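Lab manual, section 2.4: Encoding a predicted structure.

Procedure: take the sequence of the chain (390 residues), apply the prediction step described in section 2.3, and record the output as structure tokens. A sample record is shown.
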Amino acid sequence: MIEQVKGTRNLFGAESEKYIHIFNTFCDAFVDYGYELVELPILEHKELFIKSIGENSEIVTKQMYEFKDKGDRSLVLRPEATASVVRFHNEFFKNESKKYAYFGKMYRYESPQKNRYREFIQAGAELIGTIDDYSELQLLKSSINFLEKLNIKAKLNINTIGSIEERKLYIKELESYFKKNKNNLSKESNEKIGKNTLRILDSNDPFDSEIIDLAPVIYQYLEEDTLDRYENLKHNLNNENIDFVENSKLVRGLDYYNDLTFEFSYKATVLGGGGRYDKLAESLNLGNSTGVGVAFGVDRLINCINYVPSTKKIMLIGQNIDDIKSVSKKLDKSGVKYFLPIRKSKENTQYKEAIKNNVDYVINCTEMTIKNPKNRESFEFNMRNLKKLI
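Recorded output:
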């Protein structure tokens, strides 16, 4: 027997209904508000992520699915989408400012667990070109609108990690601090010292918590202009009555971020996050466009939302196909959606199929009745009665 690949997930039944609901809600919150939907290739050149995410990042060193194709090119299954969107923008719209939305699968080789898969789905948005503090605020408001449409009251965590130059000074101090305290750090955090020092601040290992709590705070190494921009962001959020929590240890694990970083958390689960990236296009030799973006883990959203479809499920059954065909024409004309039996079969078999499909109403097209299989109530079939029920 060929088994399912480890770290992948099947979406079916209630989970697939949630997936469709999240996609439609995402489009309502982003695409309908001017973010253009872009479907990006899953295959990318490895170099794109070495230059963008950072060659010492855990994603690049341990998690990318990479291979050589028949032309001996180094390709990867994309581990994230921001670099891909920036590549796309600068290839086709280099001198413009645009807003993008995407919804698709990403791949990272890591230990599978709840809310963490090797093949996972992200929904994200990017503002790229010439951006400012209004761009940041707009993205945060759109993100909150999306989550609220899903009935999720998430907590917004924010931070500033300064410019790349400012961060280098901070990382140098962090390295010195963590080296002095390496005996009180986990093995995993020790491995990051000097390679990906900043990510130690993201550690969830209880063994690291005390040392991280006492670590130098980044604000001490930021210049006045950087801190002023951060204060302006907080001022804008307060003016919009948007609640937020400052987290000086929130760094996000990607080398291309600068200044604003943020996350949305719900019941101890990070649902999404992002930040600003003013040097990403430049590091990829694609130009000088700046950007700010957000990405949400769709698998995590599926696992945390409660969703009951608002439309009632209807199935048609009957003694012969002509009976079903006659009723289906009436429903098509009225725009009412319905299920059909999978094959020609006895009415009793069709009724059992309707129950397996968990439908709300069964229309017997031969008897011209509407039946609720859950409470066995029955009504005469006509469009007036049906529309009252649905």
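Check your result against the sample. The radius of gyration is 26 Å.
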